[in-house]
């Protein structure tokens, strides 16, 4: 696939950003972000039938969803085989598209393939009109497993630096707690983002949840929120018993991962709350001794950015007890464009049976970093820094995992915060 990198027209982007800020779709509470690096635009120069924006997501331990876009209708077909095997298998799926104002998306293809062997390299080909071959590696069926975790990714020159660092990290799955493309109604930027991440997302499963920049709702003009996000990034919500692509869960390599929706209803009578309640009750800690949760808006935050928002305060008040009593090990969040790690915490106090909260909204977004913190630093906050970067969670075995945050230091990946975690299932005083 031939792609060309150009800078997106500045004036168009500037005007839209002003409109968004005026309508308060990006809820910012009176702080100034320092300038970020330039937004980039990845164009598509091949013919309309050539697959683009390829990404994969895990449907089950032995199944993957292959997603891609073509500008004109082509078969939703995937042919795949194990590395060095001549035994080719084919699978078919479905296509969809959406409209947003004058924009009409390309044909969005989704095909689920499997059963697949764990920890195995597969080659695959899309459609019938191209000889381009892709490859991916399935996740292991048990420990160890390494997750790359990054929030608020965007598509700037900082994003490119972050993606380069992640590509060199030998990760097996990427987890993204919201704010993917920062398209903000400019639908061509969704296409650009898909092309930007495809070299990585076509080789390892990317599991995402939504942030405020995915809402894209305008009263009267475009009433339905999350249109582009739900169409382009289909996650395994139905397989987990959820009724919404905005929240779901899955098991992978001894870890139960829960993706929550900060911008879906979360009160006690909501569908999300009831689903979460049931999902936590079904967890088998003998099978998945680790439980990890991702949200977009952080429940714990000592940065002056994004203080007092309903998606943080009210969601925490509604759901914190559920996570605490289920002995969730770690909660990752984005939204705040900086890094922060808390101790195990519950009800705003240190608690050895509470989850570790980590904010990692520092992928490379166009809005810049949130540099101002509360002073003095609360005791529950152990490490905080306003730098772009990414994190790696290496789950080594049923009881221990290594968390490392790597900051982008003049485009070099520098390990700047690291801690060994022991999960709560292994703590005799914190049994479920």
Write the layout of secondary structure elements.
Layout: E1 3-7, H1 10-23, E2 40-44, E3 52-60, E4 63-70, E5 77-82, E6 89-92, E7 94-96, E8 99-100, E9 103-104, E10 107-113, E11 121-126, E12 133-137, E13 145-149, H2 157-167, E14 173-177, H3 187-201, E15 206-209, H4 227-232, E16 248-252, E17 255-259, H5 271-282, E18 290-294, H6 310-325, E19 330-333, E20 339-346, E21 349-350, E22 356-360, E23 381-385, E24 389-395, E25 400-409, E26 412-422
Parallel strand pairs: 13-14, 14-15, 17-18, 18-19, 19-22
Antiparallel strand pairs: 1-2, 3-4, 4-10, 5-6, 5-11, 7-10, 8-9, 11-12, 13-24, 16-17, 20-21, 20-22, 20-23, 24-25, 25-26
Computed Rg: 21 Å
Query: What is the tally of beta strands?
Result: 26
Count of the domains: 2
Structure classification: alpha+beta
Basic shape: globular
Counting DSSP H or I runs of 4 or more residues, the number of helices is: 6
Biggest sheet record: 8 strands, mixed
Strand content: 25-35%
Per the CATH scheme, the topology name of the largest domain is: Purple Acid Phosphatase, chain A, domain 2
Average pLDDT over all residues: 91
Detail the poorly predicted runs: 1-31
According to CATH, what is the class of the largest domain? Answer: Alpha Beta
What is the architecture of the largest domain at the second tier of CATH? 4-Layer Sandwich
Question: Ends: how far apart?
Answer: 50 Å
The percentage helix is 10-25%
CATH homologous superfamily label of the largest domain: Metallo-dependent phosphatases
